[in-house]
């Protein structure tokens, strides 16, 4: 245990990465710490000492990893909470041992975040020198032959996005002020993520899009898979928060996942009742957070067993993002589905009393 709230993947999973490296006799692309096969094993687990990070189709991870061994960059696309950021961090950790070279895309991301900036005090004192230059994460990744991550690429203004084009096609970053350039070393590549719900990927200029291979991360295939993802992550996060191990709460997890899946799909699992969907995304990531909250409540304010009352308030909070329209959706769901369902009385009562 450390006193850091959240360690980077390469630190958190250092032991697994070292084990994989030690047993890795397959060819590695230049600049890579592991072979592509070992990177995929790191992501999906080996059923033994290597824990699964991503739960989903192996083929997608193979395609993602293979892309990074080419001269094309990787774009992870998907609705919120499908592990785009999570996979991107683990890919960078496994391939280059450093997941920290990251640009967070926002509407205000400046070109300096992708190219370079200046330390103005030094610039004024010394003029444009290499020492006055502030390297961007992309520049550092190029110089070190590592992976740069660009989060939420489609939120970045188009002209700033376009500064990636030269980087990706020429693999150099010119610094006209110094009459120099930074050439990318082998192992350099870029992983971008974009959310196809917030705003469309259409906003990627076609010139830039041609430099990326896109891998779409799907929502979990079925309830069992989603329960598996949620259970593992809740256990991981509980350990990170140093919460005591609670008795397994499979039924409670199954219930949360069911509520999320039904409201997301707009129909009950048996296909009989159509439902209105709330305005929020009801993502797997939110289901995880509802349950972690529940575990904290059960630990500190409950009897140490995760119960309906510990998750009900969190679920209401996740569903009701818009106080007017979502409240109606939730009421309808409670009265037509939750109330009638066998074994859901405790949950119905807890959800009602939290109103
Ligand atoms: N298929 C999956 N396998 C493993 N973990 C998953 C999976 N789907 C979601 N998660 C978990 O969900 C959480 C949120 O994932 P993440 O933040 O990467 O989502 P995202 O796709 O980047 O969402 P956003 O679009 O909101 O940025 C992570 O803790 C991740 O472990
Ligand atoms: Mg993300």
From TrEMBL:
Gene Ontology MF term list: ATP binding; ATP hydrolysis activity
Top-level taxon of the source organism: Bacteria
InterPro entries, per the entry: ATPase_dyneun-rel_AAA, CbbQ/NirQ/NorQ/GpvN, P-loop_NTPase
Domain ATPase dynein-related AAA: from-to ranges: 74-212
PANTHER family membership: MAGNESIUM-CHELATASE SUBUNIT CHLD, MOXR FAMILY PROTEIN
Species, as recorded: Virgisporangium aliadipatigenens
Name under which the protein is recorded: ATPase
């Amino acid at each position: 245990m450390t006193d850091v709230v959240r360690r980077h993947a390469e630190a958190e999973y250092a032991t697994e990465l070292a084990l994989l490296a030690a047993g890795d006799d397959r060819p590695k692309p230049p600049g890579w710490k592991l072979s592509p096969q070992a990177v995929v094993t790191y992501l999906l687990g080996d059923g033994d000492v290597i824990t699964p990070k991503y739960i989903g189709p192996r083929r997608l991870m193979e395609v993602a990893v293979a892309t990074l061994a080419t001269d094309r960059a990787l774009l992870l696309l998907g609705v919120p909470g499908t592990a785009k950021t999570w996979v991107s961090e683990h890919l960078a950790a496994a391939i280059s041992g450093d997941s920290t070279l990251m640009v967070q895309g926002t509407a205000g991301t400046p070109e300096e975040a992708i190219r370079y900036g200046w330390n103005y005090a030094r610039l004024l004192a010394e003029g444009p020198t290499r020492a006055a230059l502030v390297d961007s994460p992309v520049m550092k990744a190029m110089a070190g032959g590592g992976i740069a991550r660009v989060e939420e690429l489609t939120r970045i203004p188009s002209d700033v996005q376009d500064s990636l084009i030269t980087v990706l096609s020429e693999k150099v970053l010119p610094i006209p002020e110094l009459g120099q350039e930074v050439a990318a070393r082998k192992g350099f590549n870029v992983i971008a993520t974009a959310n196809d719900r917030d705003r469309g990927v259409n906003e990627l200029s076609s010139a830039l899009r041609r430099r990326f291979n896109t891998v779409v991360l799907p929502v979990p295939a079925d309830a069992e898979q989603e329960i598996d993802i949620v259970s593992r992550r809740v256990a991981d996060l509980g350990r990170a928060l140093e919460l005591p191990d609670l008795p397994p709460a499979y039924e409670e997890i199954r219930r949360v996942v069911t509520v999320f899946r039904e409201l997301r799909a707009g129909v009950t699992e048996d296909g009989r009742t159509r439902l209105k969907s709330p305005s929020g995304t009801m993502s797997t990531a939110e289901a995880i957070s509802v349950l972690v909250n529940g575990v904290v409540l059960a630990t500190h304010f409950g009897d140490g067993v995760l119960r309906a009352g510990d998750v009900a308030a969190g679920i209401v909070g996740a569903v009701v993002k818009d106080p007017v329209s979502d409240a109606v959706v939730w009421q309808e769901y409670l009265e037509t589905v939750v109330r009638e369902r066998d074994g859901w009385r405790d949950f119905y009562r807890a959800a009602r009393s939290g109103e």
